[in-house]
Structure formats: structure tokens, C-alpha cells
TrEMBL record:
Residues 217-333 form the Asparaginase/glutaminase C-terminal domain. Belongs to the asparaginase 1 family. Keywords: Hydrolase. The active site is at T15. Its EC number is 3.5.1.1. This is asparaginase. The keyword rRNA-binding does not apply. It is an enzyme of class 3 (hydrolase). Residues 6-197 form the L-asparaginase N-terminal domain. InterPro entries: AsnA_fam, Asp/glu_Ase-like_sf, Asparaginase/glutaminase-like, Asparaginase/glutaminase_AS1, Asparaginase_C, L-asparaginase_C, L-asparaginase_I, L-asparaginase_N. GO terms for biological process: aspartate family amino acid metabolic process. PANTHER family: 60 KDA LYSOPHOSPHOLIPASE (PTHR11707:SF28), L-ASPARAGINASE (PTHR11707).
Length: 342
């Protein structure tokens, strides 16, 4: 091995770190310290790999803000000693975690690459090996002695995406993620094709700052024709509610019925932040384009612009955990802080 590049692999759980017990057919977590034995190809990479695993690896359906803090603390404690980090995570909620980590890690100057797989690493047709190997390779890319990627990315099936731009689109295909409103950052083919102009710039002389506070007094409401007034009123009246991500139609449209607009208006006046994102799988909210969104703009609904729901809800929890006044909240939310919105 010629380079001195060191990569830390952080295993949180999920299919990628499992193997099939060929006698019982059940999936079980394998001993991560034996990773190099199971994936001997890793020895061919021009970097040193160390592994660390959650004491009790979890299916990503059980991921919580506490897990995000645990991942961030591993990065914090090892930041000076490693050139890059690869987070192995179940794919189901990977986009939420990648978004959350992107907000937590301010002035990130090293790559943090999330990856996982649809099939366990021991499976004959597994996608785990390619995802793992290329994610590590990307985390070790350097240019003039500096990391090429200095943001939270998500690598899956030949593409590196900005983590907070991704969403899981398939429970079946190896091509399980997409980034509807931002192009991929790197594509793996015969060569690694890097779209350098799309990467976040390396922070200059700035120290990594880790924010660990989230407020989960929030909910997501997906609009549908026929949404029930009583049910919505009950939800909005839940004590302690501080924020709502409203998945609206098209470019941010919602019913113009008086009860609906008045309900949101009262909530906003009571200090509840309402973020408008589209339930379309691509495109942006543009409040005021149609009459059906003008009233939302007037009453002070926050534009989630072209954010994914995953980025919007984690950003909401993140900003609610920061000391931001109610008056400033809308302004802060509508600014892109880690490249999550256009
Ligand atoms: N249910 C698994 C998880 O998200 C699926 C996967 O690992 O991809 O943890």
C-alpha cells in the first residue's frame, strides 16, 4: 500500500452487514472486524481501513435522532485521525440519516459517504460489495493532498449523490435511490466520473462544528383530495406541536377552502412552522404561481422549494433544535445551508 489515506467504516446496521445462515436461511449480522476476510478485494484499495460498529446494529427503521448523534460522535472522535468516513446503514431510512448528518456537520472538510445494499454481503448476487468498495474508494479520493469530496454523500448502484438530495425509490431494484432535483456528483463506470463543479467547496480554515440537538415535535401531512377537517384540526391542536411539513400538490398547491387556510393561519400565528414541499417526485414549490398557493404564501407558510421530504423534515427538526427566534425561522429555513435546496 503506497498512500497513507485512512478510512473509517462505521457500521450502524442494515442488510449490507448481514450474512445468510445457509442452514436456517435467516439473515444475521456478521462480525465486522472480520470484514477484510469476507471482502478480500478491499485489500486492493490504496488506503487503510478501520471498522467500528454500533454495539447493537439496527435495522434502519429503528434509526432515531439519538442514532444520528451516535454516528456524529464517532466522526467527531475520529475526525483528526481519518481522511474519510463511510457509514454503512440500512437503505430504508438512509436518506433521512444522510440529510440529518449533513445539517449536523458544519464546516465538514472530509467525505462522509453513506452506503448500504439491497442484498446481504454474503449473497451470491449481492450489490453490497460494489457499493462498499466504491464508497470507500470515493471517500479516499484526494486532489493536491485535499479531500475531493467534503460533504455528506450517498453512494448506491454506481452513483454518488448529495445525501440530502436523495430519496429511496425502490424496495426491489439495486438502483434504489434517486436525487430528483440535483444531478449525481460522481458516476462509477470504467472510470470514476467526477462532476467537480457540483460538489460543495472545501471549507477554508474552518473547524468542524457538530450540532447535536433535534426537536421532534413535528409531523408530516400529505395532502389528498377529501382531507378531513376534523382530523386535521385535531392533528394541528396536538399540544407541543412546533412544526409541520405539508406535502402539497404540484408546485405547492392546496385547497382554497376557508377552513383549511384559516386552520394553517391560526397555527402559524400560534408559532407552529409550516413547510410546503411538493408531493411530486421532482420539481419545486413556487407559492404564488397559482391561486391555490397564493393564500399559503400570504399567511406565512415556509417554502421548502425543491427539498425532498426527507431533507425538509430533518431540517425542520434540526433548526427547531437551534436557538432561532420565531421571526427568523422562515428566513433561515428558506436558505440553503448544506446544498439541500436550490
Ligand atoms: N430493512 C433494511 C434496513 O433499512 C433494508 C436495508 O438494509 O436496505 O435496515
Amino acid at each position: 500500500m503506497s498512500s497513507n489515506i485512512k478510512i473509517l467504516l462505521i457500521y450502524t446496521g442494515g442488510t449490507i452487514g448481514m450474512q445468510k445462515d445457509f442452514e436456517t436461511g435467516a439473515l444475521k449480522a456478521f462480525n465486522f472486524s472480520k470484514l477484510l476476510q469476507r471482502v478480500p478485494e478491499l485489500k486492493l484499495l490504496d488506503c487503510a481501513i478501520e471498522t467500528i460498529s454500533f454495539e447493537n446494529p439496527i435495522d434502519s427503521s429503528n434509526i432515531s435522532p439519538e442514532s444520528w448523534v451516535a454516528i456524529a460522535e464517532v466522526i467527531e472522535q475520529n475526525y483528526a485521525d481519518f481522511d474519510g468516513f463511510v457509514v454503512l446503514h440500512g437503505s430504508d431510512t438512509m436518506s433521512y440519516s444522510a440529510s440529518a448528518l449533513s445539517f449536523m456537520l458544519e464546516n465538514l472538510g472530509k467525505p462522509v459517504i453513506f452506503t448500504g445494499s439491497q442484498l446481504p454481503i454474503g449473497d451470491l448476487r449481492t450489490d453490497a460489495k460494489e457499493n462498499l468498495i466504491t464508497a470507500i474508494q470515493i471517500a479516499s479520493l484526494q486532489e493536491n493532498g485535499k479531500p475531493l469530496v467534503s460533504e455528506v454523500g450517498l453512494y448506491f448502484e454506481y452513483k454518488l449523490y448529495r445525501g440530502n438530495r436523495t430519496t429511496k425509490i425502490s424496495a426491489e431494484h439495486f438502483n434504489a435511490f434517486t436525487s430528483p432535483n440535483y444531478p449525481f456528483l460522481i458516476e462509477s463506470g470504467v472510470h470514476l466520473k467526477v462532476n467537480s463543479d457540483l460538489l460543495l467547496p472545501l471549507p477554508q480554515n474552518k473547524v468542524l462544528k457538530i450540532h447535536k440537538s433535534f426537536d421532534n415535535n413535528v409531523m408530516i401531512i400529505k395532502m389528498f383530495p377529501g382531507i378531513n377537517q376534523k382530523i386535521l384540526e385535531t392533528l394541528m391542536a396536538v399540544p407541543g406541536l412546533k412544526g409541520v411539513v405539508l406535502e402539497t400538490f404540484g408546485s405547492g398547491n392546496a385547497p382554497t377552502e376557508n377552513w383549511f387556510v384559516q386552520l394553517l393561519k391560526n397555527a402559524i400565528e400560534a408559532g407552529i412552522h409550516i413547510v410546503n414541499v411538493t408531493q411530486c417526485s421532482g420539481g419545486s414549490v413556487d407559492m404564488g404561481k397559482y391561486e391555490t398557493s397564493s393564500q399559503l404564501k400570504q399567511i406565512g407558510v415556509i417554502s421548502g422549494k425543491d427539498c425532498t421530504t426527507e431533507a425538509a423534515i430533518t431540517k425542520l427538526m434540526f433548526l427547531l433544535g437551534q436557538p432561532i427566534s420565531n421571526e427568523n425561522f422562515k428566513n433561515q429555513f428558506e436558505k440553503s445551508i448544506r446544498g439541500e435546496m436550490g
